[in-house]
Amino acid sequence: MIANDSALQNTSDTWSFTTQSCSPVNHPPDKPVDPIPENNSENIRLNPQLSVYVTDPDDDSLSVSFYNAENNELIDKIDNVENATRATVTWPGLSFNTNYSWYVVVNDSEFETYSDIFSFKTIEEDNTPPSVFFETPEKGSLYILGNKITLPGLIKTTFILGNLTIAVNATDNQSGINRVELTIKSKWCHDEITENLTESPYTYKWNRLGFGLYNLTATVYDLAGNSANTSIVVRKFL
Q1: Helix %, strand %, coil % for the chain, to 5?
Q2: Taking a C-beta distance cutoff of 8 angstroms, is the pair 165, 134 a contact?
Q3: Fewer CB within 10 Å, N side or C side of the chain?
């Protein structure tokens, strides 16, 4: 600074300062925790779901990548995962009675954080067939445009008037479900429908016009190749 009174002038000392950025400081995501399956679990069925709980101190959305710890190959990745939620993927193609290890990397677009390495062992060979039954339709019921009306107990026939969403309950506590094959076959004419249902809930919208007796069969296959089936005969109108 220079001061001047038109006759004399004087110069001040030199001062300095540093400005601070107005941008907020970004912090790395927290380490992923609470793995599913739990670390060192055993008897895990094939095609397991891997899951971790992810958080970020800045409430950033996260990219979550799951890796095979044996070879660092990517299992799957989920983007735009909200803070303080679980990220879940499926690990397909595993073998019976085998040890597996995995880990997770979370990224907030600037920093990334690694989880611990988690391990589990899959089940031994599965020779047990899955379980299957029809949730809809039920024996001895009347369905009008999809709405169920329970008939008196002495009536064993199932009646369907109009469209109906068929629901199959299929479970397997060992290797897991591969698919459900649903067959709808008329007993009076050459009218047959076959559908492969691969995702739970196992449902099919039966919208085709029909009249008369139909045999509904659901055959379920597990990941070990075991199978089971169930059938029900219905009378359909329209």
Answers
A1: 0, 55, 45
A2: no
A3: N
Of residues 147, 167, 186, the one with CA closest to residue 230: 167
Alpha-carbon span 217 to 173, nearest angstrom: 22
Q: How far apart are CA 65 and CA 104, in angstroms?
A: 6
Query: Tokens 């429908």, residue?
Result: 193
In the chain, what are the domains? Answer: 33-122 (2.60.40.1220), 131-237 (2.60.40.10)
Rounded to whole angstroms, how far apart are CA atoms 155 and 151? 7
As a whole number of angstroms, the distance between CA 76 and CA 102 comes to 11
Cβ-contact 201, 103 below 8 angstroms: no
- Residue 158, judged by CB atoms within 10 A of its CB (0-12, 13-18, 19+), counts as buried
Phi-psi region of 80 (alpha: psi -120 to 50; beta: other; left: phi over 0): left
In the chain, the amino acid numbered 91 is W
Give 25-58 as a DSSP string.
PP-PPPPPEEEESPTTEEEEPSSPEEEEEE--TT
How far is Cα 63 from Cα 89, in angstroms, rounded to an integer? 13
